[in-house]
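2.7 Reproducibility. Because tokenized structures are sensitive to small changes in the input, we list the exact sequence used for Ferredoxin, including any N-terminal residues retained from the expression construct. No trimming or masking was applied before prediction.
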Amino acid sequence: MYRNRALQVRVANIKEETSTIKRFTLQAIDDTILPPFSGGSHITTFLPQPTGILDRHYSVFNLTAKTGLLEIAVRLAEDSTGGSYYWHHHVQVGDVLSVSYPKNYFPLSFQAKHHAFYAAGIGITPFLSMMAELTEKNKTFELHYAAKSKEQCAFYDYLHEAFPNQCHFYFSNGEDKKRISPTQLLNHRIGTHVYFCGPESMIQDFATSAKTYGYPPFHVHFERFAPRPMKEQHAFQIRMKRKETELEVPANATLLDVLLQNGIKIPYSCRVGGCGTCEIKVTEGEIVHFDSFLSEEQQKSNRTMLSCVSRGKGRLVLDL
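Resulting structure tokens (single pass, no recycling of outputs):
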């Protein structure tokens, strides 16, 4: 991880965007300029907990008129006792926190002739910086944004004012109910790249439909906030070929967790199978892939896996 390169930031402002979403403006503690970031970037926040440091990832943007700031939006998850609960109930203006430098695993494709963004709920956040960047570069884009209602639609006023011709809103409650649909992917011209961010079911529906409609794989982009759900998780064994060590990965832990707990330091970052940082070579055994990073060909080769999400059947021999 990059905690050794953490930034110290001060919470400059907190704004309630909806009843469940708060926006936090972060500034450098010495009033210098925080590092720049590209559209789709995120930071990792390191939150102190009784059991240790809790890592959480949030898309970054800056809707203020002042340069050198970082902003994130955090939705309070139901029954949360972790990251979102801490941000909503403990963080106050003036607090000093540790965050990573901005990283980008969800970048804009500048091979695209047009960009179409599909967001649901808090999934709007990566698109805020993307739209700002495309506007600066005079590139075309459109946003399709689903929420329960106008009141629960974070950043509605900002989006409506800043991008009146590019934004399309879909509210599932109220008098004028309108739902976002994957069939809208059929309306885009050739050369369009599509981007999805929201609940897992939404990402799966839109990504599957894009493939069915003939979108080339490199025209389809999405970002997850959490690993793909697994119907069943079973324990499996690993043997490290070079270290001649054997370990068991319990059903409720990841391979990455077990390696780190046993002092085996491997690089990692996103923990949701999206960046490829924690990739490990496998020399024997059957892999069950849950990542969104490796290509179908790489997954079928059964020779490499992302240790943060993917698992084994029975026993794996790792090139470690």
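The mean pLDDT is 92.
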